[in-house]
């Protein structure tokens, strides 16, 4: 299929419909918080939150290793608690950015300050309940004693739109209202004090646990050698799992034969357009991000297009991902999962255009799921990698000349006069 034919088909796809839904900007955080306060008043009895159901936990990173660790509860939505936990299902639902904000601002974070290190045998008290919630395979009924009322901040400014979080309350105590169901593979990793964290993560992934489940378990300090188990801030755990599983998958495909032809895959979701160009050859990967003026990460409407890129060769990276951070590992995971299914390896260039429609950060989950799902359905093909990049550039907000200056993989392409326009 030619690229122009592929683009005509994509314009009528379900993904295009999802994008139109995401284009409707919404700044109604105040309404979400007001709704939460009303539900909270109806739910709380005295100074305790009874009958709540927790689908997940949160571990902060400020002042590490003395961190804020919390149990998240969708107050007033207990019957639907699982939908409030970030998962691949959010993509399948076709959530909008406003939907993401609504769910996150509806979660009460009942928290305590905790020392993140040496939590191997900490299964009592508030921390113990939090860890039980994290290792369970379904939302857990809990009773939380609150020390005062939740902090519901109705003075919402630009920072709140950029980083939406739900109300917070200091927790005096927490108790389980049921026995959590812990899957046998998780029990196995808990019982083995000699299993390093990387091996345990890959084991769970191979046993069918998605990275969302694994990063929650890692965050609760439930993986790794006994003496090394500690709480891992949520943001760090997400990147750690994507990176660790990605390295595992990369090692598995490096002996596979190469793909036979140049493939072009595309997806669009929540104001982000993704192009994945796969070319014959040994494994190589690069993510190039183009962030439009007026988008959340390039908010100045008068600024030019902001470009960022990171890459790796056959043996992977030796240093930190400087410019694209967690998006790099999330996008790489989606590509590697596809190549593993196909039993092949390839050179992979992922191009991400963040448009002005991306008015609030949904999280790296949307990068992961957009790339994962880019391989569904039709694809376009090109004669060469150079031809694919040239064709795709016609749909990008930057010229081929600009792309060559930023991209390692595109830098070697020959230029002609029209490429500078």
TrEMBL record:
The lineage of its organism: Archaea, Methanobacteriati, Methanobacteriota, Stenosarchaea group, Halobacteria. Involved in DNA damage repair. HAMAP family: Nre. Pfam families: Nre_C, Nre_N. It comes from Halogeometricum limi. Residues 21-298 form the Archaeal Nre N-terminal domain. Keywords: DNA damage, DNA repair. One of its GO terms (biological process) is DNA repair. PANTHER family: DNA REPAIR PROTEIN. This is DNA repair protein.
